[in-house]
Amino acid sequence: MDFCDKARREFYLRPSYILRQGIMAIKNPRERYRVFRGFGTLVKHLFRKHGQLAPVARQAPTIKP
User: Fold this and answer.
1) Dist. CA 18–CA 28, nearest whole Å
2) Whole-angstrom distance between the N-terminal and C-terminal Cα of the chain?
3) 29-46 and 2-12 helices cross at what angle (nearest 10)?
4) CA–CA gap between residue 31 and residue 24 (Å, rounded)
5) Which of 4, 8, 24, 37 is 20 to 30 A from 45, comparing alpha carbons?
6) Contact 5, 39 (CB under 8 A)
7) pLDDT per residue as tens digits for the range 33-59
8) Which of 43, 52, 36 is nearest to 12 (CA)?
């Protein structure tokens, strides 16, 4: 798991990759949405510590009559 995390970081955090994604985001509004959404997912996965689970979304309590 550590090897895969390191490989992902090395690939997705390359300056050439980031620049190419930035150019695509500037040129195409649809691509911009996809790139920013993907960046959010990438941050969640790349910067968590090994063995730590992603946070679970909490639901608001429901009030029963």
Assistant:
1) 16
2) 48
3) 150
4) 6
5) 24
6) no
7) 888 888 888 887 777 665 555 555 555
8) 43
